[in-house]
């Protein structure tokens, strides 16, 4: 079975090749998959895609014409796939529902600790032989209230870690997780979570219902000086509203691993290029904002698990052992 791996990096090549015993034939392609690049899938049976590939109707139609029968997402999220169209074209979509919830949850915690204790600023100061502490004042996480939006695998792991800091954790999820309830974590309506949390961390999927969940209305309900962390998907946040709230001090800290317009930026080296995205450029000017380029998943353990499940999905489809395939259904 021939698989075209789009948006591939050297680490994808290493991990996928290591997991397959030679039954799959991978072609590693650097470009993102979209309408313009879909033709590169010619001669393959399946495509393997990542978070910033565009699997919209025109792209899927081209893939179907080329005889592609399966899309193996090497990530958990599938908001970039038109599932209805894929189903209509008889293209199976599979994903990696779980690889390492610890990788993403721990990264969210890293953002919180960095923001709170100004590690990013301290790092630069010390390198300049500036050991003054002005402006580096943090706060104890102990006994602070942390709101977790979405308590699936990652949110639940994050909630458990924050309980370990002695935080009071509040949760919101339309489908409460019994494992989280067993930790005596209270599920509350979103309005209460906004109003009572000192730190808010987003761990829900991007769907029409959660698109721009963080907007001027929800921010207005939050505590002044709140810390907001998003390691989920960029479009959960309406960035311009967050910038306004950062300027007024309503949002006191912002930690992002994802950004609504990240597809044109992340995973590439643009250090010799003039940044064209003025909204992103504004975010970079705040001392109380830190941004990482969608790296929360990026641990050895997670990459191993992603490659293993992706190969299992592809082989399951190849041998029509569908019980082994983690299909995405509408
Ligand atoms: P999951 O499916 O296990 O959990 C998602 C949870 O969100 C579920 O409990 C679901 O009930 C809940 N949810 C659904 N609708 C909601 C709503 N309207 N409001 C609040 N919660 C809602 O997924 P997961 O593995 O925990 O991953 C969570 C998200 O993290 C993914 O959707 C993905 O976007 C993101 N992610 C990011 C990275 C990264 O590298 N930054 C890596 C993996 C996943």
List the helices and strands and how they pair.
Layout (H helix, E strand, L loop, with lengths): L1 E4 L4 H10 L5 E4 L17 E4 L7 H9 L4 E4 L9 H6 L3 E3 L6 H17 L1 H9 L17 E5 L3 H12 L3 E5 L5 H4 L4 E2 L2 H7 L2 E4 L13 H5 L5 E5 L8 H10 L2 E6 L21 H6 L5 E3 L8 H19 L12
Parallel strand pairs: 1-2, 1-3, 3-4, 4-5, 6-7, 6-9, 7-8, 9-10, 10-11, 11-12
Helix pairs in contact: 1-12, 4-6
The protein binds nicotinamide-adenine-dinucleotide (NAD).
The site of nicotinamide-adenine-dinucleotide has 30 residues, from α4 and α6.
Explain how this protein is built.
This is 2-hydroxyacid dehydrogenase. Keywords: NAD, Oxidoreductase. Belongs to the D-isomer specific 2-hydroxyacid dehydrogenase family. The chain has two domains: 2-99 and 300-324, Rossmann fold (3-Layer(aba) Sandwich), CATH 3.40.50; 101-291, Rossmann fold, CATH 3.40.50.720. Helices cover 35% and strands 15% of the residues. It has helices at residues 10-19, 57-65, 83-88, 101-117, 119-127, 153-164, 178-181, 190-196, 216-220, 239-248, 278-283, 300-318, and strands at residues 2-5, 25-28, 46-49, 70-73, 92-94, 145-149, 168-172, 186-187, 199-202, 226-230, 251-256, 289-291. The chain has a seven-stranded parallel beta sheet with strand order 8-7-6-9-10-11-12, with helices on both faces. Helix 1 (10-19) packs across helix 12 and helix 4 packs across helix 6. The structure holds nicotinamide-adenine-dinucleotide (NAD). Nicotinamide-adenine-dinucleotide (NAD) is lined by residues 76-77, 101, 104, 149-155, 172-175, 177, 203-206, 209-210, 231-233, 257-258, 294, 296-297.
């Amino acid at each position: 079975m021939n698989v075209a791996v789009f948006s591939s990096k050297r680490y994808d090549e290493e991990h996928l090749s290591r997991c397959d015993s030679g039954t799959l034939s991978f072609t590693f392609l650097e470009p993102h998959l979209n309408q313009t690049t879909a033709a590169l899938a010619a001669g393959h049976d399946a495509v393997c895609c990542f978070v910033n590939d565009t699997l919209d109707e025109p792209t899927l139609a081209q893939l179907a014409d080329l005889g592609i029968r399966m899309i193996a997402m090497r990530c958990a999220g599938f908001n970039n796939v038109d599932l209805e169209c894929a189903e209509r074209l008889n293209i199976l979509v599979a994903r990696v529902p779980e690889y390492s919830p610890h990788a993403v949850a721990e990264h969210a915690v890293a953002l919180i600790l960095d923001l709170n204790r100004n590690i990013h600023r301290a790092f630069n100061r010390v390198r300049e032989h500036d050991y003054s502490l002005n402006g580096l004042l943090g706060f104890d996480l102990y006994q602070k209230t942390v709101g977790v939006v979405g308590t699936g695998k990652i949110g639940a792991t994050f909630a458990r870690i924050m309980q370990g800091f002695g935080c009071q954790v509040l949760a919101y999820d339309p489908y409460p997780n019994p494992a989280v309830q067993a930790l005596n974590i209270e599920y509350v309506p979103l309005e209460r979570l906004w109003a009572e949390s000192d730190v808010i961390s987003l761990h829900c999927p991007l769907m029409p219902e959660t698109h721009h969940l963080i907007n001027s209305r929800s921010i207005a309900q939050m505590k002044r000086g709140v810390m907001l962390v998003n390691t989920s998907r960029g479009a959960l946040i309406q960035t311009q509203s967050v910038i306004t709230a950062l300027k007024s001090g309503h949002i006191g800290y912002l930690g992002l691993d994802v950004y609504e317009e990240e597809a044109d930026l992340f995973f590439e080296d643009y250090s010799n290029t003039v940044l064209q995205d003025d909204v992103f450029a504004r975010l970079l000017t705040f001392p109380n904002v830190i941004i990482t380029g969608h790296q929360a998943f990026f641990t050895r353990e997670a990459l191993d698990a992603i490659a293993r499940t992706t190969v299992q999905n592809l082989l399951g489809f190849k041998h029509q052992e569908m019980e082994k395939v983690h299909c995405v259904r509408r």
